[in-house]
Structure formats: structure tokens, C-alpha cells
Specification:
two-stranded antiparallel sheet, alpha+beta, 1 helix
Length: about 90
């Protein structure tokens, strides 16, 4: 497990990454993030201020699956398309 603490809009968030964990029920998912790779193998990161960088992602909207959230957020934040995703 990898644990990281981030700050956003003055609030701190604890992020935990687990390997081989089953997808939780959609009703329990409050945030979706993804490690996105370009065709050449580079990782796509975003920045609001040009100083801090992070992964693409966001909050689910009603009825969205985690994959739907990732596809929407990647399109909105990076003007890219998700061709394949894996939990």
C-alpha cells in the first residue's frame, strides 16, 4: 500500500493506493483518478498553477461508473481520450 497526503483548496486529503483490491460498490466511490499513459509511454499529469502536478480524475456524477468518470475527466482536463482502462 502507498499512502500520500495532498492539500487542495486548503483541505488535506489522505490518498491510499492498494494493489489487487476489488472495485468497491459504486455508491462508496467519491473520487476516481487514473495513471494515464500516452502512446509513447509518457505519463499525463495536470497542473492548475504550473507548480503542483497531479493525476487526472474527479468526482462521479449520478449514474457514472468509475470508467465513465475517468473517460469524462480525461476529456475535460487533458482533451484526450481513454482507449483502455484497467482497475
Amino acid at each position: 500500500m502507498l499512502t500520500e497526503t495532498n492539500e487542495f483548496n486548503g483541505r488535506q486529503y489522505k490518498v491510499e493506493w492498494f494493489s489487487s483490491v476489488p472495485v468497491p460498490p459504486f455508491s462508496r466511490i467519491t473520487q476516481v483518478s487514473g495513471i494515464c499513459f500516452t502512446d509513447s509511454g509518457d505519463i499525463v499529469l495536470i497542473s492548475v498553477d504550473g507548480v503542483s502536478w497531479g493525476l487526472l480524475g474527479g468526482h462521479p456524477e449520478a449514474g457514472e461508473s468509475p470508467e465513465d468518470v475517468l473517460k469524462r475527466e480525461v476529456g475535460e482536463e487533458a482533451c484526450c481520450e481513454v482507449h483502455r482502462s484497467e482497475y
